[in-house]
Amino acid sequence: MTRLQIKGLLLSASLALMGCEAENGNADRNDTLIDIDSLPTSTLTQDLKDAIAYMGNEERLAYDIYMNLYEYHLSDETEINQLQNIATRGEKTHVGIVQSLVRKYGLGEEDLSNVSEGVADNSVAFEDMPRGQYDIPAIQTLYDALYAKGTDSVQDSLEVGCLVEVTDINDLDHYLALAEASDAADVTAAFEVLRDGSYSHYWAFDKGLKNLGIAEGCCSLGTIDGLNYCHDEYPQNEKGNGRGHGNGGKR
User: Do 133 and 57 meet the contact criterion of CB atoms below 8 Å apart?
Assistant: First the structure.
């Protein structure tokens, strides 16, 4: 892997945080911007530094896989709205939030213990980051498996969305506990925004599956390798669905 290819850990410092829109075109309150620099500076443990790196990779995985699967299925004239909308209106915002933590603490390769090689070059723009390539091995393995599944069908692509968002929420629950134990208010606030967004995205994919006739939505996945992907307890809006993005499973 070249040096350019491994620059995808965390994204460019010039990344503009983009607002996230809901199905009706209004801003999604769960994906609103957060001013990390306005919050008190924390003392980061090594675990928290690595958590920031991990979530930078994981949020970029979500953007990459949604966009790559969206474009893959366009080849058969199928447009899966959730994939594109959540990537461009939600996940790109999430990556920017993590990047703001990286900038605030000046995190570099020497500060991290969980990357295989390299760290993001903040001079590289978001659009120049290589999709589907990561320098945390677990993220690379996850991407490869999910992409292979998502290319099978529209249903599989929407199921990938459910899998990604539940994985994201589980990891954020773990890292939020670390942040709260360290009184790292800025990291806690950032990760809470990411988790709230993932709740919304989960329900958007759930709705997409139901629009395809999969009555149980994300719950149709059940439990895989000991992990439960049915989460009726995730917050929903007053209409009983998520504030996620997209208008149906496909065109």
Answer: no
Q: Is residue 105 part of a domain?
A: yes
What is the tens place of the pLDDT at every residue in 14-24? 222 222 333 32
Residue-number span of the structural domain to which 102 is assigned: 45-202
Specify the pairing of strand 227-228 against strand 223-224. antiparallel
The count of structural domains within the chain is 1
How far apart CA 150 and CA 137 sit, in angstroms, is: 20
pTM: 0.82
| Chain-centre distance for alpha carbon 61 | 6
- Indicate the pLDDT class of residue 32, thresholds 50, 70 and 90: low
Phi and psi at 245, nearest 5°, equal -115, 155
List Cα–Cα distances, 18 to 2, 28, 91, 92, 232, in angstroms: 29, 11, 9, 7, 29
Q: Provide the residue type at 177 as one letter.
A: A
**pLDDT one-digit tens code per residue, 117-162:** 544 444 456 677 789 988 899 999 999 999 999 999 999 999 999 9
Q: What's the token pair of residue 47?
A: 């675990």
Domain containing residue 198: CATH number: 1.20.1260.10
What tens digit of pLDDT does each residue of 80-89 get? 999 999 999 9
In a domain, 190, yes or no: yes
Q: Which residues pair with 223 in a beta bridge?
A: 228
Residue 97, domain member (yes or no)? yes
Cβ-based neighbours of 213, under 8 Å, separated by 6 or more: none
Q: For residue 167, is it within any domain? A: yes
